[in-house]
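# step 3/5: fold
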Amino acid sequence: MNRNSISTLGWPKLNWRGAAILSASVGLAACAGSVPPPTAQLGASAQAIQQAERAGALEHAPAEFQSAREKLAAADAAMREDERTQARRLAEQAQADAELATVRSQRATAQQAASAVRTLANPNAGMPGAAGRAPAASAAAPLAPPAMSGTSTWSAPRTLEGTP
């Protein structure tokens, strides 16, 4: 090394390129180490839990709903301890659990509504003894020719009035 490349403190002198590289690397290291707080994710998770509750998740999907609430509480605790990555991960899991609870609740509600419609459409379906019984003939059903011994004298189909 020559005399001009060493500073008075014993540190090597940096030219403008070295200074730029050093500051860029320090800046990148600072950005890589700091994770932004997952406040938006926590809010989205809380909203998903509220939506699941409105959809009836307490009744139709209690396990998923409870899991979502526990994970959101754990995410809040991780935020208080400044563990942002863990908080984000837990908040995402809480949101997924809440959305699953919502979908299961909506499915159960739709199945109940479909069952009620089927019951209204066929009120005898749920009655005992109705399973083996034939439905009653309606007025729109075609009439069968009367039973006769031997061969039938009808040559053409007839209407209800009896005229061809």
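# step 4/5: annotate
Residues 74 and 90 are 7 Å apart (CA to CA).
# step 5/5: archive (pending)
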